[in-house]
Specification:
Elements: H1 13-27, E1 67-70, H2 85-97, H3 99-122, E2 126-139, E3 149-164, H4 170-236, H5 242-276, E4 299-302, H6 305-311, H7 313-334, E5 339-350, E6 362-371, H8 377-445, H9 450-484, H10 489-492
Parallel strand pairs: 1-4
Antiparallel strand pairs: 2-3, 3-5, 5-6
Helix pairs in contact: 2-4, 3-4, 4-5, 4-7, 4-9, 7-8, 8-9
Length: about 500
Amino acid sequence: MKADHHLPPPRTPLHATGAILCLGLLAGCAAGPDFQSPAAPGVAGYTATALPAQTATAATALGGAQRFVEGAPVDLQWWRQFGSARLDGLVDQALRASPTLEAAEATLRQARLGYEAKAGATRYPQANAGLGAQRQDTNNAAAGLPGGERSFNLYHASVAVSYDLDLAGGNRRALEALAAQTEYRRYQLEGARLTLIGNVVTTAVVQAQLAGQIEASEAILATQSEQLELTRRRLALGATSEREVLALQTQVAQTRAGIVPLRKRLDQSNHLLATLVGQAPGAAAMPQFTLADFRLPGELPVRLPSELTRRRPDIQAAEALLHAAAAQHGVAVAKRYPQLTLSAQLGSQALTAASLFGSGSLVWGLAGQLAQPLFNPGLRAEARAAEAGFDAAAANYRQSVLQALREAADVLRALEHDAQALASLADADGSAQAALGLVQQHYALGAASYLDLLIAQQQAQQTRIDRVAAQALRLADTAALYQAMGGGWSQDRPVDLPAPVQ
């Protein structure tokens, strides 16, 4: 007999071994490209022109020079650099009692448990036990057999095991996406913590600024009221006109009206501070801050732009979403490849419960199912949609990096310019105080009127209001810099994440 060359040769153990090896190699792969972290920005600095070695110096409180230290680490508890024990206590209280952080922590736990649930359902074989009994009735006459109708009980017990070999790595990519989502929630928590601390510090500084401005405004109001009373006496003596009295009355009313919004903002800052630390606004009195409670840090850490992307939680969160989108693309691609499922069942069946686990009641079964999509145009569209989602996540990541670089550039320039503004206002304040001193001397010698003295006092108080705002702005700029540099979390706080998917 001639051999038929159109028939495949008989399979040998070597062929079977090759098939098993191919399946094993395929099972070790995962569809889609492996995720690679985006490259760090290639710029050397945050601004087009280089930063000065230090900021300007002002001859006033909170007017010292601040030196920029490139590459310096950011203290994990950076708010302690302001030297206020009461501020430290409020930040600690906020970290313990903030509902915002509590919600973020619960969301992170949810993400972790979701990852564990998915891992348990896909990484390992699934085993289920069954135990049951049923009553059956057969009619032998209907089948042409003797005996007529017969009823009997059937008992059965079994253990079934199934496992998806995940040949194309779709399950592994799905786990990878969940792990990236957990990273995202972790970075969201760190970002919420950093934002909360920054809000507490900034609100305390605003409270101190408003307190100082109210104090200066009330001093101006007292001076204006005294000036108005003096002018009224001069009017009674015929030494001035009623028009001057009316002008001064308008000025007093305007100053008094200007204090009201300052008090409103101060109350609102107190309410905000209470809610930031997890308390109702009326539950307890918040500490009242003044600018004298704060110290201006002398050295400011400035991380390199290439390092900033690894240090800011918002950028890391955007990268985690990018990672998740890449893994989801792999999940969509894997659906187009074969799916192999193995299952086995071991149990027993018997007509009586007593003989259910006897030697003659054993039943077993093995099964394997290989499924390959042949015609499903939706799978290709699903893969393209996942790829578009990755492109969107990549664009959002680049935007997050640009936003972070812009924030850092803005605050660095603000530190420089606001220090210069405070220096000018400190000079103006010094000139106003010197002018006030000269008027006081002339008034004591009878060379200046009391009205001249009140006007000089009013000018001095007005420059004081502007100086208070500039002092508070330097503190706020410093807090904003620590936030823009990402705080110290990524250096000192390890990220607890699920194990990477292999």
